[in-house]
Design brief:
Number of domains: 1
Bound molecules: adenosine-5'-triphosphate, magnesium ion
Helix content: 40-55%
Distance between the termini: 17 Å
Largest sheet: 5 strands, parallel
Radius of gyration: 16 Å
Length: 178
């Protein structure tokens, strides 16, 4: 039996802005609550208002922002608390570091074309980036490095959120984490 049997899991949602990370995180929150599990949700926008206040969108700042979340997840998970993380987390190296630090790491890639994200543009950020008013937008000027070997790939362009939420839960069941 693994020595990490009492550790919490971390569902790490990564994808372009507008790919549906917050939407899927909210759905997972609802489902984990129903199951009475102990967990915290770390959503990029919320984390940037407190833990990462003052940080911007350079590679270095994005890394610092993500690594703070990884650190807090490390503290929680070793005490048996689970976590749902929804961060763009565009870099392979940062996600690889998260995998290294967190024993029950479940990387979930929200696959959605940049064209569809631009159509959705839930915060109007793509519009601003395309108009040259923002210059660090992931998918426009900044890179998004697609996960190479995630535990789960969600096609958020074609499959419904409910279907995708169930898909993550099935993976957690399969791994015996829930
Ligand atoms: N199948 C789907 N899965 C998820 N979201 C969808 C889907 N179809 C349409 N949407 C819509 O796409 C938008 C996704 O926005 P959301 O805020 O969840 O993205 P995000 O990845 O959290 O973006 P950001 O990185 O900017 O925070 C929402 O308005 C959601 O309702
Ligand atoms: Mg979001």
């Amino acid at each position: 039996m693994s020595s990490f049997e009492n550790y919490g899991f971390v569902v790490w949602l990564t994808g372009l802005p507008g790919s549906g990370k917050t939407t899927i995180a909210r759905g997972l929150e609802r489902e984990l609550k129903v199951r009475g599990l102990k967990f915290e949700v770390f959503d990029g926008d919320e984390v940037r208002k407190n833990l990462s206040k003052g940080l911007g969108f350079s590679k270095e700042d994005r890394d610092t922002h993500n690594k703070r979340v990884i650190y807090v997840c490390k503290l929680l998970t070793r005490n048996g608390v689970n976590a749902v993380v929804s961060l763009i987390s565009p870099y392979h190296s940062t996600r690889a570091y998260a995998r290294e630090q967190l024993p029950r790491f479940v990387e979930v890639y929200l696959k959605c074309s940049v064209e569809e994200c631009i159509r959705r543009d839930p915060k109007g950020l793509y519009k601003k980036a395309l108009a040259g008013e923002i210059d660090n937008m992931t998918g426009i000027q900044d890179p998004y490095e697609e996960p190479l070997n995630p535990e789960v790939v969600l096609d958020t362009e074609h499959d419904s959120s409910e279907y995708n939420i169930q898909k993550v839960l099935s993976k957690l069941e399969e791994l015996d984490y829930i």
